[in-house]
Amino acid sequence: PTTFFLQRRYRAEFAPRRTKYRKAHKGRVPVRIGGSTKGNTIAFGSFGLRVKDGVRLSSAQLTAAHTVIKRKIKVIKGSQVWMRVFPDIPVTSKGNETRMGKGKGSFEYYACRVPMNKILFEIGGGNIRREVAKEALRLASDRLPVKTEFVDK
């Protein structure tokens, strides 16, 4: 029988419902050297927000950006938001000035590793205008700790 662990999960923040393991290795943000372009182009909507550097984004950062996009395009009937990444890596930390040993730190938050040039958010539907989409994604990028660019089909 496999056991599934559940960390602290707030309704407002993105987090996996269940995880197989409570803690994970730190890992590195993937650097695509083999020419992979997975997730680099718009697939669902008409406009997107692309990251310019590899970065690790926390659940709270993604939630803030997602919320501000939804709030901005709410007035347009039939508009939709797609999030192309999901925070599923548990990040742990130990307190400052803690001696070596005594195991890995306790769970802090969920994060996701985002490679360079990946599309984070897409918006479309409801014949959304370019200016509205650009403004919504600009507001979202203000809440992210990475350089981004606006892309359209």
From TrEMBL:
Gene Ontology terms describing biological process: mitochondrial translation
CDD domains per the UniProt record, alphabetical: Ribosomal_L16_L10e (cd01433)
Cellular component per GO, a single term: mitochondrial large ribosomal subunit
InterPro entries: Ribosomal_uL16, Ribosomal_uL16_bact-type, Ribosomal_uL16_dom, Ribosomal_uL16_sf
Gene3D superfamilies in UniProt: Ribosomal protein L10e/L16
GO molecular-function term, one example from the UniProt record: rRNA binding
Keywords: Ribonucleoprotein, Ribosomal protein
Pfam families (UniProt xref): Ribosomal_L16
Entry's family note: Belongs to the universal ribosomal protein uL16 family.
Name the UniProt record assigns to this protein: Ribosomal protein L16
Lineage: Eukaryota, Fungi, Fungi incertae sedis, Mucoromycota, Glomeromycotina
